[in-house]
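Entry 14. Two folds queued back to back today. First construct below, sequence then structure tokens.
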Amino acid sequence: MEQVDLFKALSNKTRLQILDWLKEPEANFPGQKEYGYEQGVCVGQLQAKANLTQSTISEYLSILQRAGFVQATRKGQWTYYKRDEAAFERLSTLIANTL
């Protein structure tokens, strides 16, 4: 993915908020505690917290996934998302080497 696309993925307030929430899923999504957080956070939890339509959340998550910022895991009919922390390390290195 090109550098411009990485920054475009981060150019939306809600997408940044999603990434921030996923940084500490236990604190931000207590309703999922009984299912655990190993696989990530269910799309429904993200949709409820963001108060957006399912299609909008899916689009945002797709953009973040294509940019490499989140990983998706499908479990039955549910899809779970979690941050890819290595992507943020690569981004930090990219920024440091560009400036």
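Second construct, same run, same settings:
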Amino acid sequence: MGVIAMQSASTGLRALNTRLDVIANNLANVNTEGFKTSRANFEDLLYVERAQPGVENNNGDQRPTGLYVGLGVKVSGTQQDFTQGAPVPSDNPLDLFIEGNGFFQVQVEDDLGEGGMAFTRAGNFTLNADGEIVLANSDGRRLEPGITVPSDAEAIGVDGSGRVYASLPGDAEPQEIGQIELAVFVNQTGLTQVGQNLWVESAASGPPITGEASTQNFGKIQGNMLEGSNVDPARELIELIRTQRAFEMNSQSIRAADETLQSVAQLRR
């Protein structure tokens, strides 16, 4: 009688708890460069069929509707929103912003990403001790294809197509020292998140398609600019309140089912 209601409400509490975790992670990364917000998608569970629609009675009349009782809900997955974040001006020429489609490619361990490659929208790059362009994160992932800046370079610049230039002593014009390639995916929402502002290829995303920025389906690269997080704090706080209210309603369902069972148990008294 009330058992199904309690079980259904308990699945709702579990699903909403996951949704709460996703919202909390979004809010925690409101200032993370290149971060993409996620949402939890729900789907209903199996149904108990107590009456089938279309069944005829003795008079030949058909039942217009069925009688089904659902068994609750579960989280079907988390879906990422790859809407572009707001550009944030910077004084660092190696802070790069992709205006449009595409990911920067960086080297990772072979067991982390397919072919030792990962992808990021965070363009906060810097130089390591060898003059290589690397991500300014905890592990300093190298940009792929690799670009090494001469130690005597006086200035560095990146144009819209991803060509990297260095001003060297004695040269009137900046010299091209490398080309940044971008990668796009057929289904970028299928990429696997591995932390450190990185995604890696999965069976759902398909293989990366690489090319030069500002061509075909590839975005334009802008220097002295970073892509901010696309988290909308106001929207996330609204979703947080909705999740809290839904949690309370499911808790109330459990309480009501418990009171019903308690009443049934006391009938014989």
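Quick look at the second one. The radius of gyration is 27 Å. The mean pLDDT is 92.
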